[in-house]
Structures are given as C-alpha cells and as structure tokens.
C-alpha cells in the first residue's frame, strides 16, 4: 500500500451549558443503569429539539450497566476521557447504546464522542453460544447509530461484542419514506474482540448508509476471542431481502487490520474431553467446541457451520477468513485509502453480489 495518512482524532466543542445532563450519584461499582435512565428521563422532560439539542454526558471511570440504554432524540452522547461503559447484562437483540433519530426521521448535526463500551463477561466473547434461541447476532452491538445526517462520531473502543459499531437506519416506512445514516465523519481508534468491527446495514425500503467518511481504526478480532465462521473488519450488509442494496460512496481512510494469524489448537483424538471455546485441529481443519464433553470416535468432516461430534457440537472455523478488510454482500460502492494489513493469511477483500460503479465496472476502489 502507499504511505500512511493519519488525520488524527478531531475533538469537538461540547459547550452545552444547562442542556448537558449527567447521571446523579454515579459511582464506579455496582449497576448504574437506573441512574443513567433517570438522566435520560430528565432529558426527555426538557424537550430537546433540532435547534436546541441536549447532551447526555458520562464521567470518567468504569460505569456498569445491566441493561441497554437508548439516548433520546436530539441528544448528543458524550463519554469524557477515561469513561468506559461496562455491560454486565444478558445478550440482547439490541445495541448496548443506541443513539440518533428513532421516530422523527433524520437528525442533523449530532455529536457522539468518546464511545467506549466493553462487555464484562469473557464468556460473551465466545459468540457461537449466542446463536441459539431468539438472539440475533446482527442486532447485538456495542453502539448503534440510527437515522442521522451530517453527524460526528468518535469511537474510542468497542470490545467483546458480535458487532462493534453499527450504522443502521430504521425501516423507511417508519420515517415517511426516507431513512439513512449519511454524510457523517467517523473517527475510530480501536475495535477489539468482535465478529464484525463496523457494520453498515441497509434496512427495508429506501433506508441506506451512504456518503460517510471513516478515519483510522485498528481492527483486532483476536487475542482470546473465539468464534465460528468468518470475522470481518468492515461489513456491508442488509437486514432482509427487501432492504436497500448499496451503502454507497463510503470512504475509509487509513484503517489498520489484523488479519488471520496462526491458530493455537490442540489435536482432535477419539473420545477426547474438550472444553467450550477451545480450538482443536483435525486433518488441517480447525474446530471450536461449543461445550464441555467427549467427542466421538470418528473425526469431524464438516467445513461450515456446526455439527455434532460425540456428545458435543463442534463449530468449523475458516482460518483463511479470519478478518478480511472488507466484506460486501449488499452491493456497495466504496473506497479504501491506505489500508494497512498487519499480519496473517487469507483474502483481504470479499465481494458477494457487488454493485457496479457507473462507467467503471468496479464496485470498490483502492488507493
């Protein structure tokens, strides 16, 4: 790749005066969800508008919450330096923090700064266990931004979630026919322990994620995370078959990706006692045990998803797709400038059913 350009993180003016709301009596131990929800109730009562936005401001320190929070409309969300949300709750079909326009269509000019969200239980890092029941892995994100235009978003760190950052507009029908997350500047510092680092997800109808510029971003899915299948630094996706197909003209400047590395795994053998989340080699393939138990007497042969082997389920791990730079299943037109690939094996770019840039015949540009 060509020389690296690093524009740096752009701190923004946060002078809200009386329109800045912080939780009262917040401490760095125990569940603080109720105190944050109280601040959200006060913001709602204050009635912020498009011309008079409010701000929910979280102070420095680890702040434990057991339930997801939804930032009110026309309200910026600020985590000051040293602030970290520690999620201690159960797995959900929603993001831990959701912000942006939710029922009024497009919000303009929002600021979401210092986003730092961590999932406490290391067991949550074992994402194949999330696939059961009614949990949708494409819904459980650290931070989700809904209908927003001309916004600023600064992500300090997301850690331990299936989705780190998700730009996901509401269905177009819910907003009068137009719904998007667009024309934003997004500064990313670190995305760690994920299935998808950044997800640009189209929704039903004309609900798109277009014209955003992303700066920097260190994408690292490894160092303890376990998962089945493929993991992606950046993913373009669709909520369903009738969702907007595109996510066009998004630009990524100077991202850094840690791709697939050597896998530490034990050898599979007949009647072996295996443990959840640990990897096992068999004939050059890698499998992850979903629970503790004894494997069968015949080695696993599947090369996708999961299959029973003795008393346990083994997930197949495609080590050649550990963390591609970009995965496109929605036909996006995008540009990546000066991307760095730190190490590893496997393809950097995966395009499925890509769109076509007019007059070029190419769906994605690289410099």
Q: Can you lay out the helices and strands and say which pair or pack?
A:
Layout: E1 20-21, H1 33-46, E2 54-58, E3 61-65, E4 69-70, E5 75-79, E6 83-87, E7 97-99, E8 107-108, E9 111-119, E10 141-145, E11 148-149, E12 152-159, E13 163-167, E14 179-182, E15 185-192, E16 196-202, E17 207-210, E18 213-220, E19 232-238, E20 250-253, E21 256-257, E22 266-267, E23 273-274, E24 279-282, E25 285-289, E26 293-294, E27 306-309, E28 312-317, E29 326-328, E30 334-337, E31 340-341, E32 349-351, E33 364-366
Parallel strand pairs: 1-2, 2-5, 3-6, 4-7, 5-9, 6-9, 7-10, 8-11, 9-12, 10-13, 11-14, 12-15, 13-16, 14-17, 15-18, 16-19, 18-20, 18-21, 19-29, 20-30, 21-31, 22-24, 29-32, 30-33
Antiparallel strand pairs: 23-26, 24-25, 25-28, 27-28
Notes on the protein architecture:
By secondary structure, this protein is mainly beta. Helices cover 4% and strands 39% of the residues. The protein contains one helix and 33 strands. It has one helix at 33-46; strands spanning 20-21, 54-58, 61-65, 69-70, 75-79, 83-87, 97-99, 107-108, 111-119, 141-145, 148-149, 152-159, 163-167, 179-182, 185-192, 196-202, 207-210, 213-220, 232-238, 250-253, 256-257, 266-267, 273-274, 279-282, 285-289, 293-294, 306-309, 312-317, 326-328, 334-337, 340-341, 349-351, 364-366. Strands 1, 2, 3, 5, 6, 9, 12, 15, 18, 20, 21, 30, 31 and 33 form a 14-stranded parallel beta sheet that branches. Helix 1 links the parallel strand 1 and strand 2 (54-58). The longest helix is centred in the N-terminal third of the chain and has 14 residues, at 33-46.
